[in-house]
């Protein structure tokens, strides 16, 4: 996740939070990403803010005409 607070949770704390969600992940592994998360925007309303993240490539794409 893109949050120091989430990263600081223990496995037991993550499981306790996930148990409160209205859906259950079972039978399949969590999706993975190829790259890294980069914080790019902050969304706010009603005195609260939420950081937005995007997935960045590990290496920049090559231009098709570059040698």
Overall form:
extended
User: What order do the SSEs take from the amino end to the carboxyl end, as H and E?
Assistant: HHEE
Overall radius of gyration: 17 Å
Main beta sheet: 2 strands, antiparallel
Percentage of β-strand residues: 25-35%
Distance between the termini: 36 Å
Low-confidence stretches: none
User: What is the count of helical runs?
Assistant: 2
Mean pLDDT: 83
Order of adjacent strands in the largest pleated sheet: 1-2
> What kind of assembly state do the chains in view correspond to?
single chain
Helix content: 10-25%
Structure classification: alpha+beta
Q: What's the number of extended β-strand segments?
A: 2
What structural keywords apply?
two-stranded antiparallel ribbon; alpha+beta; 67 residues; 2 strands; single chain
What does this protein structure show overall?
By secondary structure, the chain is of the alpha+beta class. The chain is 18% helix and 28% strand. A two-stranded antiparallel ribbon has the order 1-2. The radius of gyration is 17 Å and the shape is extended. The relative contact order is 0.17.
């Amino acid at each position: 996740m893109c949050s120091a607070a989430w990263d600081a949770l223990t496995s037991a704390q993550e499981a306790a939070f996930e148990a409160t969600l209205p859906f259950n992940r079972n039978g399949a592994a969590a999706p993975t990403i190829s790259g890294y998360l980069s914080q790019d925007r902050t969304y706010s309303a009603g005195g609260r803010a939420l950081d937005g993240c995007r997935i960045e490539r590990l290496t920049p794409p090559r231009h098709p005409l570059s040698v």
